[in-house]
Predict the 3D structure of the following.
Amino acid sequence: MGGRLLQNSCATIEPEVEMNANPSPIVRGMLWMAATGVLFVTMNTIMKWLAQDLDPWLVGFLRYLLGAVVMLVPVLRLGARALWPKAPKLQFLRGLFHAGGMILWFAALPLVTLAELTAIGFSGPLFICLGAVLFLKERMTGARWAAVLVGFAGVVLVVKPWGGAGFAGISTGMLLMLASAPVFAGSFLTAKALTRHDRSDVVVLWQHLWVSVLLVGFAVATWANPSPVQWALLVLCGFIGAGGHYCMVRAFRVVDISAVQPVKFLELVWAAILGVLVFGTVPAGATVIGGMVILASTLLLARHESRVSAPVKESGREAK
């Protein structure tokens, strides 16, 4: 069902509008995706702190509910009619994928090591690239595959899963975490398809609404009243998370989803920088080397796509 919806969505899009402004679409898409990573790493740092005292299910639910409230403001400025999406079935499908991925991710969280969490979590771009070829019919070039694989190798250099605290055989937690990766990939592939129908802010709004609805049962079961400080941080997470998803959808609107996947690995670099600035944690040599590999793969892909690819077209203007 999901595959047919994605294919039908891509088959009925309006003619794309060519954009000649500088920088090139691939660079703009990568910049939007880099901004997404910075925002998500910042939000995850705050949510990790909140989860020390509040149940992670509650934190996740409130982050999406408050994010939905945040996104209501720009959408309502266009009038009440702008609230209703042009592709409601795809919006629900995306919410279902994303909520399903979160359920698997939270279930796996207490059962895996940090090395397993990081390495398996960064397998997502591999599933997204495969899905982009199968369902969105994107052309996956050798340069894109090379950038994704080299970027993933950089992550492995940092995580070193073969170390003492790394992988210790296949566990239930690892299988749950691995299952969440293609489910999240389904959410992002659906978001790419939705850029052909709805404005970016409408796409983000309905994602947050559906995830909130689908996770409300988990939140009720684990409810605890947050303190005023916790509420303030949850509201901040709502703003940052909604902003991160908005930047990501804008990236998907500008360029092929497969072209920006190597930028995902830069989140490891942003996390290391944030660790230095906030916690005073000096990254190890392997972290620096892995970060350089990730950054190099991203920059080389951007240079290659900008120089040798045919001009990339926008996935349509924002709907009025």
